[in-house]
Every structure is written in C-alpha cells, then in structure tokens.
Automatic annotation (TrEMBL):
Binding site residues for L-glutamate: R40
Keyword Membrane: no
Residue list for modification N6-(pyridoxal phosphate)lysine: K190
UniProt source species: Paucihalobacter ruber
Keywords linked to the UniProt accession: Amino-acid biosynthesis, Aminotransferase, Cytoplasm, Pyridoxal phosphate, Pyridoxine biosynthesis, Serine biosynthesis, Transferase
Name of the gene: serC
Residues engaged in binding pyridoxal 5'-phosphate: A75, S76, W99, T147, D166, Q189, N231, T232
Pfam families named in the record: Aminotran_5
GO molecular function: O-phospho-L-serine:2-oxoglutarate aminotransferase activity; pyridoxal phosphate binding
Cofactors named for this entry: pyridoxal 5'-phosphate
Pathway: Cofactor biosynthesis; pyridoxine 5'-phosphate biosynthesis; pyridoxine 5'-phosphate from D-erythrose 4-phosphate: step 3/5; Amino-acid biosynthesis; L-serine biosynthesis; L-serine from 3-phospho-D-glycerate: step 2/3
Protein name per Swiss-Prot or TrEMBL: Phosphoserine aminotransferase
GO cellular component, one term: cytoplasm
Amino acid sequence: MKIHNFSAGPCVLPQEVLQKSAEAVIDFDNGLSLIEISHRSKAFVDVMENARALALELMGLEGKGYKALFLAGGASLQFVMVAQNLLEKRAGYLNTGTWSKKAIKEAKIYDDIYEVASSESAGFNYIPKGYDIPSDYDYFHCTSNNTIFGTQMKSFPDCEIPMVCDMSSDIFSRTLDFSKFGLIYAGAQKNMGPAGTTLVVVHEDILGKVSRKIPAMLDYKEHIKAGSMYNTPPVFPVYVSMLNLQWLKKLGGIAGIEKENEKKAQLIYSEIDLNPLFKGYAVKEDRSNMNATFTLENENLKETFETMLKEAGISGLSGHRSVGGYRASMYNALSLDSVKALVEVMSELERKA
Ligand code: PMP
C-alpha cells in the first residue's frame, strides 16, 4: 500500500532521491561508500560545490554577492549564529510563533531585541502586518513559514536594513525575490534533504560589522573562506540535498514546484472550508501552503477518523503537541495524489457522520 507521508519534518523526499542516496551509501566512488571516503576527496568536494551552486541558481542569486553554505547544527544554531555575526546594538524580530520565539530568546543573550510585532495573543494564528522596522537597527529577523501554526508570510516588508529570514519550512517551495534578504537559513529536513545540515545563504556585504570576536565555527566568514568545509561537513545530508536540488531543477525549478504546491494547498483548504466537520486554525489570508493546520470539531469522531486515515495509508497527520488537532504538511515531494487521498478520507467521514 502506498504511504502518504504528511510528516512536518523530517518528511517525504522524492523516491528517486532516496534510491540514489541509498546506492551511494553502498557505492559512490569506485566501490567506496559516500560515507567512508574523505570529505576532501575530489568526488565529495564536487558534491559540495554542486550543492552550493544549485542552491544559488535555483534562488536566482548567482553572481549577486551571495554565498551558500551547508552547515551543521540545525536551524536552531542559526538563531545563535545570526546574532553572533550581525548583532552589534539592536535588532528587530517579528514574533510569529514557536521558532521566532526561540530565535528571539537566543538573540537576547547577545543584546536587546525589539519585537516589531507579535501574534502571540491570538495563538499565532495570523501574521502581523503594518509594523515599522527602525532603520538604524542592525537587522530585521522573520520566519517565512510557521511550521507549527500553519501560517506563512505572503509578502515581506521593504526593509532598509538587512532582512534575515528563517525559511526552514518553505525554502524552495515558492518564487520570491530572494535578493531582498541579507541572510536566509533553512534546516534541510523539510524541502531539501535529511536532518543534519542547514543551508545558509548570506550576502557577504553584511558580514564583518560586529566588534565581538567570533569563534571560528560560528563565524560565517570562516565557513565561506573554507568553501563550507571548515571542518568535516555532514556529507550524507549534503549529498541528499544536492540530489534533491537536482530533482527540483529538472521539474522546472521553484516556479515549477510552486504551481503544484498551490494546487495541493487549494485542494486541502477547500475541503477544510466546505466540510462542516473540520475547522482551519490559521486565518485565511495567512494560510501556509506547506502546513495546513485544522481541527476536527466533533471529538467523538476522532477514533473513526484516525482509523480511516490509517486504512488509507495516511501518516504523520498529528498536529504539533503545542497546538493539537491535525497538520497536513505538503512539502515539495508530497504528490497531489496524497492530498487527494486525504481529502477523500475527510469527505468520506462527512458522509458517514
Ligand atoms: N525554524 C523552523 C521554521 C522550523 O520549522 C524548525 C524545525 N521544525 C526549526 C527552525 C528548528 O530546526 P532544527 O530542528 O533544524 O534546529
């Protein structure tokens, strides 16, 4: 039976990427496994260079002063590195959920943080708009897609200071003017690859402006100088990410996948809106195309619904423990057919109820 994987991350990856990754673990370079060769070997250096170049190419950022890095430590380490490298006096943060809060908490260790706006009092079910960003701050930080609450920034403010964005859960899913950002980071384990590496895309001009000494492992400049190989990089996650970016390019790049992502989102949200048994969590205008959050209005139907999901091969639909309900994560590699299968179960439940 086909399993429809709606997991929020780590999550579904294209079958062909999984297949090639598995093969490389056995034989990548003349009988040697990808994970037993030197990261300094030509074969792996090529992988790293390809992955870095593809990331910039897909984002339309080649030749524009940006560098792509594949670092370890998860997106959570970027909460720290961003502040280490960029925060001198004060920074502005948009608080749209759990991950923004964590980013703010880490940055506060370094200096004062100003929350330009927050949707916390409404349970983070919308994206604040119309806030001011002081032009004398070091940077502005936002989270493009709130994985847990299912909200997504549909537009970004015009910002005179460097804009830093956590794009962990919607990177490579929609066309954006990526050159609006000074720094973008994203944990691999949603739209890019397995857990273990984080993509950082940074404009070199914004670096080297803080007075503190930065330990080498936390210093973007050191990582850039070393070609993202300051120390042993997470070779397997970088390789899988490279394959996944190649897969995306073949499909027509971000613009190609964006159309599919819109179809999937329209399908699930129209079911949520039409089916009286379900209720969406996020306000309509800010709904995420990646993570659709919803609840089942009648608790008595929970068991029946969950049995039906299981029978249909639908997995990973539980909402985050802090929100409850359900969350359908529809990352790039999830097919429209999987969303159709879920919608079919939802409408079947309505017929039965
Ligand atoms: N930011 C966002 C938007 C996320 O969804 C996540 C993880 N789900 C993180 C940051 C943290 O990522 P990591 O576990 O790689 O540190």
